[in-house]
């Protein structure tokens, strides 16, 4: 049965048992070394010291990973790699003790032979697989399986070559280990093959990690940076060994690898690893560059200034390095920051990337573009319109919000997650985010306008279809039967006219009544399509007529409505006339019914468009009328928006601007 971490009791017992096995082997090896009383000066000759240290460190970190992430094979691989080194150290310690104690040659030979090769098996399988399966225990695709298969196929070559690297340990004693036999003259070729294979594997590993970093999310990138931090000391140890420093002192740098892997898998958010790598890479590369440049320039200048090299050459080189130090530092800093922090030091590039995403896929891809541009763990765009926003990455408890303002109005928010270890965004990040806020706000506003336009079109289509259905129903159920009845009565009159004139005359009277009802029905339908007052009185006359009807309230109190407009209006488009009439009558009705107004002013002005304003004095003393958005105000705003205008209502005042485009009728 699995617990909260997804591990079973058997998995936990297995992890603890493997750790105990590794610690037991190391302990026995240390005791054997102590019993043999090996002098401290000879410890360098015995490679078992690093084997024993690795035999404890790697299983310890592997056990922690296995207990917290039992389904991730990295913990088990680290443990197996440590077990290989632990047994190698155990075999060397027992071999030393057994040689001095006179153990059976067969036992010593078998012990050292197996121990000489277990660390090779662990390195070529478990450790190599751990790097390729980092960080989630899976390969990016099945195409990478050939690398692991090739590593296993080439294992005999690795055992043949690496198993011999014992620096003559136990040479000429009963504990002399056996190696895989090799025909005469083949060993150099096998060594070259092993070197070539190692280079190909390292190249494949570098390619794989580069692809994971480029295609992975923010969490995967932080894990990879932790791995890089742990392997840099490993690479440094190799360089130091090349320069002749004993492996006993340099191999301990490999202990950073399991710690870095454990942190990457379990606690990659412990701190912002980018800061550590940024400073380490910058000053490390700069220091090595200064040393190499100094040595090279001194040698070169001394060859040119042979008479007095000890005086002139160092001075010229020092001046040259002093001049070139700061430009080199800035160049390296930009390169490191670009790799770790994206485009935060190049806001123009970041904005251009956002613009490309906006032009391509719209707002949905913007959070991902912002996150990739600034290497942020989480980005979310939250519109104020209430529509669902887009996000990218995993949300964290530490976030920063940047308001998105357009034309003095907040249209949304840009929420970004802070990097691990940060309590607030860096000034460089804030500068880029504030710059990005401008195009994002414009894009949000445009998206909102597009959404409103689409909704308006849908409402227009729906209203048009509803109106058509109403007219069809009225024609079919009202006017249609009436006209059909008229036709039947006309036929009846024609049939009766010759032999029953009196009855025909009665039918004609009924026919006239039916036709009159049909005319009334037609007028009702026409009035529903367009206010009849507009056709009879014009816009100004219809508004004055409407104002006169609203001059008295239901309680008998009087309302003075003043209409201020040009004496004669130019020909207006039919849609503008209807919209102006509907908005004005709605505003006048609201002022007369809901406001405590005694005077209402209706003003109409003609310029680039038609400006309609309705004001009332219905505010109590010292206060203003509180307009609550409702169906009426929403209807006025929608009528103006349908024509490309706008309508603002509030505090006892309605102002509508209607463009005069289109044809008149």
From TrEMBL:
It catalyses: ATP + protein L-histidine = ADP + protein N-phospho-L-histidine. Residues 467-534 form the Signal transduction histidine kinase subgroup 3 dimerisation and phosphoacceptor domain. Keywords: ATP-binding, Kinase, Membrane, Nucleotide-binding, Phosphoprotein, Transferase, Transmembrane, Transmembrane helix, Two-component regulatory system. GO terms for molecular function: ATP binding; phosphorelay sensor kinase activity; protein dimerization activity. The chain crosses the membrane at residues 12-36, 48-67, 74-97, 117-134, 146-163, 195-212, 224-243, 249-268, 280-305. One of its GO terms (cellular component) is membrane. InterPro entries: GAF-like_dom_sf, HATPase_C_sf, Sensor_HK_TwoCompSys, Sig_transdc_His_kin_sub3_dim/P. Pfam families: HisKA_3. Its EC number is 2.7.13.3. This is histidine kinase. It comes from Streptomyces sp. NBC_00093.
């Amino acid at each position: 049965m699995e617990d909260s971490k997804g591990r079973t009791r058997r998995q936990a017992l297995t992890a603890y048992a493997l750790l105990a096995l590794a610690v037991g082997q190391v302990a026995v090896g240390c005791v054997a070394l102590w019993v043999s009383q090996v002098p401290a000066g000879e410890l360098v000759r015995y490679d078992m010291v690093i084997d024993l240290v690795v035999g404890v460190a790697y299983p310890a970190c592997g056990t922690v990973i296995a207990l917290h992430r039992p389904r991730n094979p990295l913990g088990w691989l680290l443990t197996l790699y440590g077990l290989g080194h632990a047994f190698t150290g155990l075999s060397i310690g027992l071999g030393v003790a057994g040689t001095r104690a006179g153990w059976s040659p067969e036992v010593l030979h078998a012990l050292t032979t197996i121990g000489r090769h277990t660390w090779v098996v662990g390195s070529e399988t478990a450790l190599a697989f751990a790097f390729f399966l980092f960080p989630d225990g899976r390969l990016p695709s099945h195409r990478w399986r050939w690398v692991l298969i090739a590593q296993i196929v080439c294992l005999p070559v690795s055992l043949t070559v690496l198993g011999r690297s014992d620096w003559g340990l136990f040479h000429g004693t009963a504990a002399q280990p056996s190696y895989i036999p090799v025909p005469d003259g083949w060993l150099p070729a096998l060594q070259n093959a092993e070197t070539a294979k190692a280079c190909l594997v390292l190249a494949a590993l570098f390619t794989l990690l580069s692809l994971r970093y480029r295609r992975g999310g923010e969490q995967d990138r932080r894990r990879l940076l932790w791995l890089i931090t742990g392997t840099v000391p490993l690479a440094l140890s190799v360089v130091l060994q090349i320069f002749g420093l004993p492996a006993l002192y340099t191999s301990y740098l490999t202990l950073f690898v399991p710690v870095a892997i454990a942190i990457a898998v379990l606690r990659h958010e412990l701190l912002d690893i980018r800061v550590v790598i940024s400073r380490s890479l910058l000053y490390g590369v700069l220091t090595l560059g200064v040393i190499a440049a100094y040595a090279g320039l001194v040698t070169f200048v001394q060859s040119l200034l042979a008479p007095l090299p000890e005086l002139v050459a160092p001075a010229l080189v020092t001046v040259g390095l002093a001049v070139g130090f700061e430009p080199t530092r800035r160049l390296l800093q930009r390169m490191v920051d670009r790799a770790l922090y994206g485009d935060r030091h190049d806001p123009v590039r970041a904005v251009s990337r956002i613009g490309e995403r906006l032009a391509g896929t719209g707002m949905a891809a913007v959070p991902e573009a912002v996150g990739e541009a600034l290497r942020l763990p989480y980005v979310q765009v939250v519109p104020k319109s209430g529509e669902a926003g887009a996000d990218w990455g995993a949300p964290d408890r530490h976030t920063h919000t940047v308001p998105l303002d357009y034309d003095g109005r907040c249209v949304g928010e840009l929420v970004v997650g802070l990097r691990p270890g940060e309590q607030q965004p860096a000034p460089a990040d804030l500068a880029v985010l504030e710059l990005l806020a401008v195009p994002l706000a414009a894009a949000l506003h445009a998206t909102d306008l597009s959404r409103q336009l689409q909704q308006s079109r849908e409402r227009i289509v729906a209203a048009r279809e509803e109106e058509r259905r109403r007219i069809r129903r009225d024609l079919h159920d009202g006017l249609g039967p009436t006209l059909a009845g008229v036709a039947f009565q006309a036929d009846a009159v024609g049939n009766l006219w010759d032999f029953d004139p009196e009855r025909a005359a009665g039918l004609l009277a009924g026919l006239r009544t039916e036709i009159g009802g049909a005319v009334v029905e037609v007028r009702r339908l026409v009035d529903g399509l367009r206010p009849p007052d507009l056709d009879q009185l014009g816009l100004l006359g219809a508004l004055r007529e409407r104002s006169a009807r609203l001059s008295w309230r239901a309680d008998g109190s009087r309302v003075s409505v003043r209409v201020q407009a040009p004496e004669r209006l130019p020909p207006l488009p039919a849609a503008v006339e209807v919209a102006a009439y509907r908005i004005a009558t709605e505003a006048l009705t609201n002022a007369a019914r809901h406001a405590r107004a005694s005077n209402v002013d209706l003003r109409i002005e003609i310029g680039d468009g038609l400006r309609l304003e309705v004001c009332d004095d219905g505010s109590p003393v010292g206060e203003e009328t509180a307009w609550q958005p409702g169906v009426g105000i929403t209807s006025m705003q929608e009528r103006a928006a349908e024509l490309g205008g706008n309508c603002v209502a509030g505090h006892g005042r309605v102002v509508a601007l209607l463009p005069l485009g289109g044809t008149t009728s």
